[in-house]
Amino acid sequence: xxxxxxxxxxxxxxxxxxxxxxxxxxxxxxxxxxxxxxxxxxxxxxxxxxxxxxxxxxxxxxxxxxxxxxxxxxxxxxxxxxxxxxxxxxxxxxxxxxxxxxxxxxxxxxxxxxxxxxxxxxxxxxxxxxxxxxxxxxxxxxxxxxxxxxxxxxxxxxxxxxxxxxxxxxxxxxxxxxxxxxxxxxxxxxxxx
Length: 193
Hints:
By secondary structure, this protein is α/β, with parallel strands linked by helices. It is about 45% helix and about 20% strand. The protein has helices at about 5-10, 25-35, 55-65, 80-85, 100-110, 135-145, 155-170, 180-190; strands spanning about 15-20, 40-50, 70-75, 90-95, 115, 125-130.
């Protein structure tokens, strides 16, 4: 882990977020929440990868510079992100439009609490909030007691979902879910292996 993260952690709840530095990730809402959370209680790691919108990046980095309880990492190798996901207490995904986020799945795999927008179907185990709703995200922070999620983080129910879909198809009935949701369920089962 980068030394800046180890120093920052210091017994505080370590919050990780990641993605491209583009408006689709809506980091403003997380920064808005940071302003209302105790900096002695929370530390934030923003791991930015790949594409960046220069104007948006500039604005976000200026905003983050005001917080001593935040660190910015850029284009880290995959093993660093995996280490971050393993040690964080909480992963936050604020994307207003998203795909099937590997980062969300990694955090769940490590038994971490995940707060994520409901902009797409998310794996079971995520605590969801509407996109661009910083008040809803802040309520999740206030309700967070540090207890990691229990259970299988949706792996068993994902398998059950796939089996149900196959049974419906085998009996000639149209499936009750979209093709995209089916593909997500298949990926969940494959990633569990």
